[in-house]
Amino acid sequence: MKEGELVMLVDTKKRKYLIVLKKNSFFEFHKGKISHDDLLRKSPGEKIISSKGEELLILKPALFDFVLKKMKRISQVIYPKDIGQILILGDIFPGAKVLEAGTGSGALTCFLVRAVGEKGKVVSVDERKDMIETAKKNIETFYNKKVEEIKHLKLERANLKDVKEKEFDRVILDLPDPWNYLLKIKKVLKQGGILICWLPTVLQIFKLIEEVEKKFYKNFELQGIYETLQREWQKKGRSLRPKDLMVGHTGFLIIFYKIK
Ligand SMILES: C[S@@+](CC[C@H](N)C(=O)[O-])C[C@H]1O[C@@H](n2cnc3c(N)ncnc32)[C@H](O)[C@@H]1O
Predict the structure, then answer these.
(1) What domain range includes position 41?
(2) How far apart (Å, rounded) are the C-alpha atoms in residues 258 and 23?
(3) If you measure from the C-alpha of residue 175 to the centroid of ligand 1, how many angstroms do you get, rounded to a whole number?
(4) Is residue 172 part of a domain?
(5) For range 118-128, the mean pLDDT
């Protein structure tokens, strides 16, 4: 492992700690401390003992660990359980050209960059400067490189209505009023492409679909409306059952085909 890389430590109670490796530093927690220099000499999959005798498993964090445990959030982020659905139901493929608005803290952007790969392209816009700056830092922390080095990502401070680029395979909207941008999406999304909208309330879904049915029925065809509930289970001795707590509500996915 190298300096600047993210590492995840898992304690005996399965608690996860994400840290960025830095020479001459220490990670301190309630069960003692661990030297980063010692971690730099280890590999993922190995274990390390803290100064108070706690054994920790060393791993490279998955992107969902980073989003849930480490990423700086100044907006509501889309949860990994829902991002999984966006990638599959929205059919995000390697080589795809994807437009995302708004970027927010960059949770979805991090996944999109990986899903489309270097042959694809992600254009992610947010009208707020602080959002773009936060997303930039988050992306750089996870990928351990400057955002400028990720050539297939264009992170831009802009309002969706000012996006000039066209011929997108997919458009993903996580903003409160997607019905106001249908004309814009009609222009920038390829025929046969897919529009994916993320909305937290049913009134928003209703308004969006009504707008499509009234004014854009020739351009967009509803593919589906989805909600994803994920229940995690646990095993403790002879007891194997769902965990007491789960995330009750995040939002809904509304997906359309662009038909004309
Ligand atoms: C909930 S956040 C997005 C979170 C993001 N999907 C994530 O996973 O981290 C919504 C963002 O949309 C941005 N936004 C709202 N309307 C916009 C518009 N018309 N053009 C560009 N960005 C917009 C807001 O500034 C805000 O940062």
Answers:
(1) 6-61
(2) 51
(3) 5
(4) yes
(5) 98
114 is written with which tokens? 């990986």
Supply the CATH number for residue 123's domain: 3.40.50.150
Q: Quick one: average pLDDT of 60-64? A: 97
pLDDT band at 260 (very low <50, low <70, confident <90, very high): confident
Name the CA dihedral angle for 122, 128, 134, 139, rounded to a multiple of 10 degrees. Answer: 0
What integer is the mean pLDDT of 217-233? 97
Please tell me the predicted confidence (pLDDT) of residue 45. 98
Q: Assess whether pLDDT exceeds 90 at residue 71.
A: yes
- CB 257 within 8 Å of CB 217: no
Pocket of ligand 1 (CB under 6 A): 75-78, 101-102, 104-108, 125-128, 131, 159-160, 174-175
Residue range 38-47, pLDDT digits in tens: 999 999 999 9
Residue to probe by mutation, ligand 1, list 132, 175, 188, most atoms within 8 Å of CB: 175
d(CA 38, ligand 1 centre) in Å: 40
Atom 5 in ligand 1: which residue has the minimum CA distance? 104
- Which atom of ligand 1 sits closest to the CA of residue 126? 22
From 44, 61, 78, the end of a domain falls on 61
Structural domain contains residue 1: no
**Among candidate residues 71, 175, 73, the one with its CA nearest the CA of residue 130:** 73
**Which pLDDT score is estimated for 198?**
98
